[in-house]
């Protein structure tokens, strides 16, 4: 494991006091670093909306996002159990006929995932979502990787709650709702850019995020401007 990347990730997750803190970019960093640091093929984050219902907030790939969405739409899967219980949930082999999530297991396997580990995003008794690690091959994650995954989720949760304390005029539910609404705009921009350039959704998202960072703009603002634009070209 890259110890420098690991330490840098914890620093970035803890640093939510910047003026233009972007929750969506923050959560995508969490999923990307989880894949880079742990033995995972993909990662996703689900967060509870103001009504307590889970929504997909970030994913390292379109396939992971679809797997997360399938769980929510079908009300079954390890990430839902993890959120509801506040405890990690392991699915070492989704092809196991004894899996408690048969519909999700079939869909995830067809997508290319054979194992899932879900860790709660929690602070004491408050659970706001789950970080989910997907693997293309069966087998449980190593205990050391799971400890790091939980630590990443814990630090990210503290960062989100810290953002609430810094924005006392808003409630945490309002902030999370805004973040989830932002994701809708980002998904629209991804689809528009992918269609325009004839590229994949993951590559389209990479281009949007790179442009946001290079131009020192919020990812949501770049996505919204592109969706509303009638220009034939995307700035690079």
Please explain how this structure is put together.
- This protein is an alpha+beta fold and 236 residues long.
- The protein is 56% helix and 15% strand.
- The protein has nine helices and five strands.
- The chain has a five-stranded antiparallel sheet, sandwiched between helices.
- Strand 1 and strand 2 form a beta hairpin.
- Helix 1 runs antiparallel to helix 2.
Briefly characterize the structure.
The chain is α+β, with helices and mostly antiparallel strands and 236 residues long. The protein is built from 9 helices and 5 strands, in the order ααββααβαββαααα.
List the topology elements.
Layout: H1 3-14, H2 23-37, E1 42-48, E2 54-59, H3 62-74, H4 78-85, E3 89-91, H5 102-111, E4 115-123, E5 126-135, H6 143-166, H7 172-197, H8 201-214, H9 219-228
Antiparallel strand pairs: 1-2, 1-5, 3-4, 4-5
């Amino acid at each position: 494991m890259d110890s420098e990347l690991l330490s840098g990730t914890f620093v970035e997750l803890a640093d939510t006091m910047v003026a233009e803190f972007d929750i969506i970019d923050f959560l995508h960093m969490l999923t990307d670093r989880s894949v880079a640091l742990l033995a995972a093929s993909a990662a996703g984050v689900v967060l509870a909306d103001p009504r307590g219902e889970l929504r997909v907030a970030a994913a390292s790939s379109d396939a992971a996002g679809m797997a997360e969405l399938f769980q929510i739409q079908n009300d079954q899967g390890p990430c839902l159990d993890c959120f509801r219980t506040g405890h990690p949930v392991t699915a070492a082999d989704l092809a196991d006929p004894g899996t408690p999530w048969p519909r999700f297991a079939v869909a995830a396997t067809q997508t290319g995932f054979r194992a899932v580990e879900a860790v709660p995003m929690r602070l004491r008794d408050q659970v706001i979502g789950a970080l989910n690690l997907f693997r293309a091959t069966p087998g449980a994650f190593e205990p050391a990787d799971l400890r790091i995954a939980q630590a990443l989720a814990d630090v990210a949760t503290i960062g989100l709650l810290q953002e609430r304390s810094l924005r006392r005029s808003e409630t945490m539910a309002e902030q999370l709702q805004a973040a989830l609404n932002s994701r809708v705009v980002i998904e629209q921009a991804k689809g528009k850019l992918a269609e325009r350039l004839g590229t994949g959704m993951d590559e389209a998202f990479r281009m949007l995020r790179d442009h946001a960072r290079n131009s020192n703009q919020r990812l949501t603002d770049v996505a919204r401007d592109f969706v509303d634009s009638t220009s034939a070209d995307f700035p690079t």
